[in-house]
TrEMBL record:
PROSITE patterns: FGGY_KINASES_1 (PS00933), FGGY_KINASES_2 (PS00445). Residues 258-452 form the Carbohydrate kinase FGGY C-terminal domain. The active site is at D240. Its EC number is 2.7.1.17. PANTHER family: SUGAR KINASE, XYLULOSE KINASE. GO terms for molecular function: D-xylulokinase activity. Signal peptide: none annotated. It comes from Jutongia huaianensis. This is Xylulose kinase. Keywords: ATP-binding, Carbohydrate metabolism, Kinase, Nucleotide-binding, Transferase, Xylose metabolism. It catalyses: D-xylulose + ATP = D-xylulose 5-phosphate + ADP + H(+). The gene is xylB. Catalyzes the phosphorylation of D-xylulose to D-xylulose 5-phosphate. Residues 3-247 form the Carbohydrate kinase FGGY N-terminal domain. InterPro entries: ATPase_NBD, Carb_kinase_FGGY, Carb_kinase_FGGY_CS, FGGY_C, FGGY_Carb_Kinase, FGGY_N, Xylulokinase.
Length: 509
C-alpha cells in the first residue's frame, strides 16, 4: 500500500495527517501556537513555531502509524494564505510574519493602487489592493523597517517556508501565489509589470509551480529528524482554501464549500476566470491546473468563537472540564435552547476588520441590542449566527455573479459542529454536506501529493478514489428557519451601513 502525508498549517495550529491511498486516516497529530496582536488591527506569528509544529507532527504521525518510510510516497503542504515570511542570505527568519488578518497596510494599498492603476491591478491580479494580501505587507516593511527590507533575500508564504525547511527549495504554487497580489492570475505566472511598478526585485520570489507538481524531496537531515525517506516527493500543495476544495471534492463547476477555521470562507470552483467588478470576493488560481475559483472571506469566523470563549464565555471551558465533555458541547446545548435571533441580539463579527462584502480594515465587532435579560447563552448564539450571516453575505455575492452552486460542502474546525452546519444550511437555503476525513485541507494536499507521486492520473481521479462523503452528517434547510433568519440578516446588513462612518471616526480617535 502507498501512503501520503498532508500538512495543514492553520492559524490556530498545524495539523498533519497520514492517509493511505484510499483516503483512510492512518495517523494524525496537531500542535497549537500563539497569534500575537502587538497593536489594534495587527496580527503576527513566528515562522519558527510553524517549522517546529510541522517537524514535530510529521515525526509523530510517522512513528504512530508504524508505516515504513519508503511507503510514504508523497507529502503536500497547505497553509494559511498571504502571510509574509522574509529570510536573509543564510535562510534565517528576519522578523515575525505579518499574517493574513493583519490590517496595518491601508496606506500601502493606496500606494499599490496608485502605482499599478486600479484597472490594471484587477486585470492582472484579478483583485483590488487589500490589506490582507502580501504585496502591501512587503511595502509596509520597506516603508517602516528599511533595515529589515535591506537584509531580505527571500520572500515566502507560510507553507512555502515549511517546504524550504523540508526540502531546501524556494518554491511556491499558483493558488497561494495568487493571494500575494504579484501574480498574473489569468496567466498563472509572476507579473513583471506589477513587480516593476512596485519596484520589487523578482529574484526575491520563489519559483511558481502548479499545485500537483513535484517541487523537491526531503533533505537528509530532515529525514533523520522525522523518520521520512529522502525519496518522498513534496508537491506544490495549495493555499488552505484551494486545498480544502480538493479535500472536499470541489474540483468542478457547480461545486462549492464553506469553511469555518479562524477565518470563514465560501468558495466556488470556476473553469473560467470570473471576477467580481466590485472586488468583494477574491478570484484566485485553484489547485486544479487550468481552473480558478472565487471566494468570499469572513475575517473572524472561528476566531470570533475563540475570542468569545476566552473573554466572555470563560465558564464553558471550566464547566466542560468539570463535566468531562468539550466546551462546544455545552455551548451547543445553550444555543439550541435559545431561539433564532438570540432573543433579539445581533453580533457583527468584525474583530479584525472585514473583507467580504465590506473591504473595510477599520470596522470592528458589535453586539447590537444587548439587554439586561441577555445571558452568555444568547451571546453564544448571537456569535454563531453573526458568523453565519457573514458567510451568507459571501454566498449571496457568488450567486449574484451568476456562479451556479448545486452542492455545498462544509469543512474546518467549525464544520465539526452540527448546530453550526444546520444554521448554514438554513441560512443558505441548500443542503450542507461533509466528508468523513475532518481535515479537508490536509486531505486536499495529500491528494495533490498522490497525483505528483504518480499514484493517480489527475486531481479529479484522485478525488473520486480518496474522498468519501458522510451521509449521516448531511444537513437539510428548514424553510421556516430560513425565513426567520432572513429577517435578522436584513437588520444585520443595515447595521454595517449605519456604522460605516463611525468606524472611520473610531479608527482616527
Ligand atoms: N466543535 C466546534 N464547533 C464550533 N467551532 C469550532 C469547533 N471546533 C473548533 N471550532 C472553531 O474552529 C476554529 C479552528 O478551526 P481550524 O480549521 O483548525 O482553524 P485554522 O485552520 O485557522 O487553524 C477555532 O477558531 C474554533 O473556534
Ligand atoms: O486569508 C485567508 C484567505 O484569503 C484565510 O483563509 C487564511 O488563509 C487563513 O485561514 P485559516 O487559518 O482560517 O484556515
Amino acid at each position: 500500500m502507498n501512503y501520503l502525508i498532508g500538512i495543514d498549517l492553520g492559524t490556530s495550529s498545524t495539523k498533519t495527517v497520514l492517509f493511505d491511498e484510499e483516503g483512510t486516516v492512518i495517523a494524525s497529530a496537531g500542535k497549537d501556537y500563539p497569534l500575537y496582536t502587538p497593536n489594534n488591527g495587527w496580527a503576527e506569528q513566528k515562522p519558527e513555531d510553524w517549522r517546529d509544529a510541522a517537524l514535530e507532527t510529521i515525526a509523530k504521525v510517522v512513528k504512530d502509524s508504524g508505516v515504513a518510510a519508503d511507503d510514504i510516497k508523497g507529502l503536500g503542504i497547505s497553509g494559511q494564505m498571504h502571510g509574509l515570511v522574509m529570510l536573509d542570505e543564510a535562510g534565517e527568519v528576519i522578523r515575525p510574519s505579518i499574517i493574513w488578518c493583519d490590517q496595518r497596510t491601508e496606506k500601502e494599498c493606496e500606494e499599490i493602487t496608485e502605482k499599478v492603476g486600479a484597472k490594471r491591478l484587477i486585470e492582472i491580479t484579478a483583485n483590488p489592493a487589500l490589506t490582507g494580501f502580501t504585496a502591501s505587507k512587503i511595502l509596509w516593511v520597506r516603508n517602516h523597517e528599511p533595515e529589515n527590507y535591506a537584509k531580505c533575500k527571500h520572500i515566502l508564504l507560510p507553507k512555502d517556508y515549511v517546504r524550504y525547511i523540508l526540502t531546501g527549495e524556494f518554491a511556491t504554487e499558483v493558488s497561494d501565489a495568487s493571494g500575494m497580489q504579484l501574480l498574473d492570475v489569468p496567466k498563472r505566472q509572476w507579473s513583471d509589470e506589477v513587480l516593476e511598478k512596485l519596484d520589487i526585485d523578482k529574484s526575491l520570489l520563489a519559483k511558481v509551480y502548479e499545485s500537483p507538481e513535484v517541487t523537491g524531496t526531503i533533505l537528509p537531515e530532515i529525514a533523520e529528524k522525522t523518520g521520512l525517506s529522502t525519496s518522498t516527493v513534496v508537491v506544490g500543495g495549495a493555499g488552505d482554501n484551494a486545498a480544502a476544495a480538493v479535500g472536499t471534492g470541489v474540483v468542478e463547476d457547480g461545486k462549492a464549500f464553506t469553511t469555518i477555521g479562524t477565518s470563514g470562507v465560501v468558495f466556488a470552483h470556476s473553469s473560467d476566470i470570473s471576477i467580481d467588478p466590485k472586488g468583494r470576493v477574491h478570484t484566485f488560481c485553484c489547485a486544479v491546473p487550468g481552473a480558478w475559483h472565487v471566494m468570499g472571506v469572513t475575517q473572524a469566523a472561528g476566531y470570533s468563537l475563540a475570542w468569545f470563549q476566552e473573554n466572555i464565555g470563560t465558564e464553558y471551558a471550566r464547566k466542560a472540564k468539570e463535566q468531562g465533555c468539550g466546551a462546544f458541547d455545552l455551548i451547543n446545548a445553550d444555543v439550541l435552547k435559545t431561539p433564532i435571533g438570540a432573543n433579539r441580539l445581533i453580533y457583527l463579527p468584525y474583530l479584525n476588520g472585514e473583507r467580504t462584502p465590506h473591504l473595510d480594515a477599520n470596522c470592528r465587532g458589535v453586539f447590537f441590542g444587548l439587554s439586561s435579560m441577555h445571558t452568555t447563552a444568547d451571546m453564544a448564539r448571537a456569535v454563531m449566527e453573526g458568523i453565519s450571516y457573514s458567510l451568507t453575505d459571501c454566498n449571496d455575492i457568488i450567486r449574484e455573479m451568476g456562479i451556479n452552486v448545486t452542492e455545498m460542502m462544509a469543512c474546518g474546525g467549525g464544520a465539526k459542529n452540527g448546530v453550526q452546519r444546520q444554521m448554514m444550511a438554513d441560512m443558505f437555503g441548500c443542503d450542507v454536506k461533509t466528508v468523513t476525513a475532518t481535515e479537508g485541507p490536509a486531505l486536499g494536499v495529500a491528494i495533490l501529493a498522490g497525483v505528483g507521486a504518480g499514484i493517480y492520473d489527475s486531481v479529479e481521479d484522485a478525488c473520486r478514489k480518496m474522498i468519501h462523503t458522510d451521509p449521516e452528517k448531511e444537513c437539510h434547510p428548514d424553510a421556516a428557519a430560513t425565513k426567520e433568519y432572513d429577517k435578522f440578516h436584513q437588520l444585520y446588513k443595515k447595521l454595517y451601513t449605519d456604522l460605516k462612518d463611525d468606524y472611520q471616526t473610531l479608527a482616527n480617535l
